[in-house]
Structures are given as C-alpha cells and as structure tokens.
Amino acid sequence: MSVTRLFVETDLSSGVEAPLGEDQAHYLRHVMRRADGAPLSLFNGRDGEWKATLSLRGKKAAVALVAERTREQASEPDLWLCFAPVKRARIDYIAEKATELGVSVLQPVVTQHTIVERVNVERLRANAVEAAEQTERLSVPEVRQPVDLTRLLGAWPTGRHLLMCDETGSGPPIAEVLAGLDDAARAAPWAIVVGPEGGFAETELSLLRRIKDVTAVGLGPRILRADTAALAALAVWQALVGDWRRPTPRLAADYRTSKDTV
Ligand code: SAM
Fold first, then answer.
1. Residues in contact with ligand 1 (CB, 6 Å cut-off)
2. Do 229 and 125 sit in the same domain of this protein?
3. What is the average per-residue pLDDT within 49-61?
4. By residue range, what is the domain housing residue 199?
C-alpha cells in the first residue's frame, strides 16, 4: 500500500498523537479508503519527516500516531517569488510549480497593469500544501497577502537580492548574471520578481532599478507569459545558485553506490 504523505502543523516526535484536519481525515477515509493502522508519512516544516500510522476516531475524526523520524529537516534556499497575480488557473499553477521549485515565500504583487482584482490566498496555500506533500518537500512556502509593488519595494528588506525579470531587455542574460555571482551573493537571501500580462509600467521599472541589491535579467529573446517567466527564472536560479547544485538524497545514494562499485 502506498504511504500517504501529509503536512501537519503539530510538533512531531515519537509517540505524539498528531490531530488530522477534517479534510485530511475525509480524504484518508473516503478517497484513499484507508483503514486503521494505515501507514502515513508526516512533515511540518520544522522536524523533518516521520513515519506514522492512521488511527480513526469516531465517524469522522482521525489522528496520526507518530513513530520514528525517517528524514532530518533539511535547510532550503531563502527564495521569494514576487509575482503579479494572473487569472485563476495560471495563478494556481504558479503556486503549485513554485512550491515544487523550492520557493520559501509566495508574494502576490499588485502592479499598475495587474488585471486580477482578488487573490484567494487560502486556495493558493492549499495548492502549495498539496504540491509539497506530493513532491517530498519538507516544508510549505509561506503564501502572503497581495501587496502593492510600491509598498513592497518601499520596505524592501536590506540584504535581500532582487532578480528582476525585465522583458524590456535592459538586463543581461539570467544565466550569465547568476553564474558570475560571488560567494557572498550566493549565500544571501534572494527574491525573483515577475510582472503581469501587461508587463511592468515604466515607473515600476525605475522603482525596481533603485533597489540596492537589484539585478535586471533577460529570459531570452521571446516574451514569456508571466507564469512561464516565473518558473523559468526559478529553475535557472535553483540550478545556478540554489539547491539543485546538491544531488537529491536518492541521487546522492545512487551516486555513492555507483561510485563505490567503480
Ligand atoms: N508586455 C508583454 C505582454 O503583455 O505579454 C510582456 C509581459 S510578460 C508576459 C510578463 C512578465 O514576464 C514580464 O513583466 C517579465 O517580468 C517577464 N518576462 C517575460 N518575458 C521575459 C523576457 N524575455 N525577459 C525577461 N523577463 C520576461
């Protein structure tokens, strides 16, 4: 039987009873049709990953009986994605894929040309939790309330580098910029900002360029849709600066095995 992986808020340690949410209990009981004692894998973003077993309580409730830790909590890059909200299906897609790509914060940013009025943060967070559960992440990105770009930049955290995806072509190619970073820049907290379907307004471009640690970059000769640009920039950043430079645990294990047999 496949092991269902769940994000929980509770502290995790051996012998703890981790309460499961109503949706989680319903999903396990009626979608996955799991019985008492079914194997679970839990993570909470702080304590690593733990083996647990399902304990059904009454008609609806369920808890997870936590057994032993199977993975230590691993450090992850401090990487924000600041993105102008786009239409529903695509913004859900950004939340899901950016979670898979390892962002620590999803920050919707309202810009002059943003056409989407409201952002359902709760739905984005649910997408992020599901993506983290399915991709063996040990954490879930924080999904913040939308903020106006001017306000965000007005309070930009000192020391956080900002990679500005600039479709006007003012920046050098992203790979050239990121491959040339010094160690201090690599170790710094980062953010990637992507504009809306209508692109950044001129005033926004000049505001962005005034941020102390901002770097404008190009994503090639074609104009990418906002969601494509966000995910492409995240992938290049992870590959050249982030944790894609480390082999993943499975690959590391295979690598060690293959190396030992050489
Ligand atoms: N004005 C165009 C439009 O209406 O489609 C461009 C907007 S583009 C879809 C949305 C955002 O993606 C841009 O603001 C920029 O942040 C990013 N982007 C798209 N293509 C890019 C490129 N070739 N280089 C850098 N950034 C790009």
1. 165-167, 194-195, 197-200, 218-220, 222-226, 229
2. yes
3. 95
4. 79-245
